[in-house]
């Protein structure tokens, strides 16, 4: 059964965002996130994965960049309800990081019951079924045994691996995102199971709205890059008025 997050009565607006890919080399994106968390009129912000470019384990949260993000999120939690869903880059975010940053884990998938509607929330990578090599890798890295083996390595070794991932294959990753997309049949089946008509996700870096047939649709969040020219990034806001895309 797909878990359901039921919006409490005081939620009048909910912001959804994903794919910020935060790292030490994205100060503009981090500053834009800080501004958004301080200024949004929403009562809740749901982070739908790949918030970090790479996360090598919760013991990294004391490092200078990571500690700054923890402080930012913890401060924002004084006025916002913050939720976090794992992506394909930050699947090693664990209970210690969530507690330190005052975020609540959001399973993938989750149904958000809010404003008289049911919205299906996913990161999006699990539905890219045509990329069979990635799906095999995903099964491997999401297994508890594999994660335990990796987390048993010294932090310095994991950080070196993270730098390798961050610096060595960005062009290949961009090409992979362009070549793959979510499987429509899998999306429809998941929506039926969820009792929802709209799926909201990130991962593909291709913001848009797509009809899936049979009355179903999927809405794609933008990735964020406020260190690029031109900058890019948006937020999807849910309210009693429905779904609105807000360019930043």
Give a written overview of the molecule.
With 248 residues, this protein is α/β, with parallel strands linked by helices. The protein has one domain: Metallo-dependent phosphatases (Purple Acid Phosphatase, chain A, domain 2). It is built from eight helices and twelve strands. The chain has helices at residues 27-39, 64-76, 95-100, 132-141, 144-151, 155-168, 170-179, 184-194, and strands at 4-6, 13-17, 44-47, 81-84, 104-105, 110-114, 117-121, 198-201, 208-213, 216-220, 234-239, 242-247. Strands 1-6-7-8-10-9 form a six-stranded mixed β-sheet, covered by helices on one side. A six-stranded mixed β-sheet has the order 5-4-3-2-11-12. The chain is globular, with a radius of gyration of 17 Å. The termini are far apart. The model has no long low-confidence stretch (mean pLDDT 94).
Short structural description:
The protein has helices at residues 27-39, 64-76, 95-100, 132-141, 144-151, 155-168, 170-179, 184-194; strands spanning 4-6, 13-17, 44-47, 81-84, 104-105, 110-114, 117-121, 198-201, 208-213, 216-220, 234-239, 242-247.
By DSSP (H or I, 4+ residues per run), the number of helices equals 8
Structural class: alpha/beta
Q: How many beta-strand runs?
A: 12
Gap between N and C termini: 35 Å
What do we call the CATH homologous superfamily? Metallo-dependent phosphatases
What is the helix/strand order?
EEHEHEHEEEHHHHHEEEEE
Query: What are the low-pLDDT stretches, counting only 5+ consecutive residues below 50?
Result: none
Largest β sheet strand count, sense and barrel closure:
6 strands, mixed
When the domains are counted, the total is 1
Task: Quickly name the level 1 CATH class.
Answer: Alpha Beta
> Percent of residues in beta strands?
15-25%
Gross morphology is: globular
CATH topology: Purple Acid Phosphatase, chain A, domain 2
Task: Please tell me how large the radius of gyration is.
Answer: 17 Å
Task: Estimate percent helicity.
Answer: 25-40%
Arithmetic mean pLDDT? 94
Cross-sheet strand order for the largest sheet = 1-6-7-8-10-9
Query: Which CATH architecture?
Result: 4-Layer Sandwich
């Amino acid at each position: 059964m797909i878990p359901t997050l039921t919006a409490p009565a005081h939620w009048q607006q909910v912001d959804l965002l994903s794919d910020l890919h935060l790292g030490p080399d994205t100060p503009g994106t981090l500053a834009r996130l800080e501004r958004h968390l301080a200024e949004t009129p929403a009562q809740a912000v749901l982070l739908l994965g790949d918030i970090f470019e790479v996360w090598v384990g919760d013991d990294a949260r004391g490092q200078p960049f990571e500690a700054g993000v923890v402080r930012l999120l913890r401060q924002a939690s004084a006025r916002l309800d913050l939720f976090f869903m794992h992506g394909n880059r930050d699947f090693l975010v664990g209970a210690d990081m969530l507690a330190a940053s005052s975020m609540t884990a959001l399973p993938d998938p989750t149904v958000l019951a809010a404003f008289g509607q049911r919205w299906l929330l996913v990161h999006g990578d699990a539905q890219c079924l045509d990329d069979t090599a990635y799906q095999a890798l995903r099964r491997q890295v999401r297994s508890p045994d594999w994660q335990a083996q990796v987390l048993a390595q010294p932090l310095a070794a994991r950080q070196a691996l993270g730098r390798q991932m961050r610096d060595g294959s960005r062009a290949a990753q961009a090409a992979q995102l362009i070549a793959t997309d979510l499987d429509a049949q899998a999306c429809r089946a998941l929506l039926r199971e969820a009792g929802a008509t709209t799926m909201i996700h990130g991962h593909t870096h291709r913001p848009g709205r797509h009809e899936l047939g049979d009355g179903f649709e999927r809405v794609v969040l933008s990735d964020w890059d406020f260190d690029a020219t031109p900058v890019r990034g948006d937020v999807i806001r849910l309210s009693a008025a429905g779904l609105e895309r807000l360019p930043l």
